[in-house]
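Good day; I would like, with your permission, to put a structural problem before you. A protein sequence and the structure tokens that stand for its backbone fold form the material at issue. I would ask you to consider whether the tokens describe a fold that such a sequence might reasonably adopt. I set the record out below, with my sincere thanks for your time.
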Amino acid sequence: MIARFRTRITRLALVMALAVTALALGLAAPARAQLVGPVRPIVGQPQTTVVQPEDSLIDIAYRFRLGYSAVEALNPGIDVWLPQPGTLIRLPTVSVLPEVEPVGLVINIPEMRLYDFTVKGLPEVFAIAIGDEVDNSLLGEFKVGNKRANPIWYVPASIRAEKPDLPAQVPPGPDNPLGDRWMNVGSTSYGIHGTNTPYSIGRLATHGCIRLYNDEMRRLWERTASGTKLKLIYQTVKLGRRGNGLFLEAYPDVYNREPNRFGELMLKLRELGFLTYVDQELIQQVIKDAIGYPIQVGTVPTALLDAAMYRPEPPPPVRVAPATKRKGSSTQATKPAARPQSAHR
């Protein structure tokens, strides 16, 4: 009797959550704009490592160039500072691609990962640090702006007000929190850069900028041209596919922007025709745990999954007129843009 009563309460709660979400969004179920490919591929392979003497989880994250929070979330109950030598540690090396056009650089803020879609084949994935609860990282569409090697950090007045002992500028070197490579986020004073505190990667640790490990930032900097598309998104839940399995990957809502993500996800699953094929209680648990790793939450017929997969449309043909050389034409070098007077970090 008790088990049946709990099941009824759970179902009633789900119905109420769907109804409240539909009213809040002004939706008349199930009429809604057709979703375009919300289910994405899963990339990466499962990996593990064994704790060595004097290892911490932070050391392991740094050794594998992973985010600290991601390693900690995937290994609950393991002592962060003194894990037992010989303990098997799962590594966060598998992820669902974000629900966005796979072009240029894509940063998913709550995931604390940067996806580089400029490379051939699957994107390269980088662990990052993001803005803290007070100084949130930007969201929106931009282009990569000015690039600088060995940047000077022009300390913003707001940061100097917090830390009066800081100088007006910090030259390149080990004390510079920008590391040795910098790329502007559009024309803003925020940037994507290296760091002099590698153990901050995978944390809410910046004044709004995006940090990478120095060696990975150099690699990204070398191959990324100014003008490359850059998108900063906020997705705490992602749907992925492997075979007929439907997977859910969830992250903490670090900026408190998605208070009803379970209800909204249920609406999405209903519109896709997936609702009867998934374990709704498991979905609630995956969102609650938010360990940042794909968990199978259902088995869905192939036809439904195929219809929900992202499939980019081929671009229209581009007609290029033959070039004509003008008499007296010449190529002039353009003057480089001036450095900003201050930059966040």
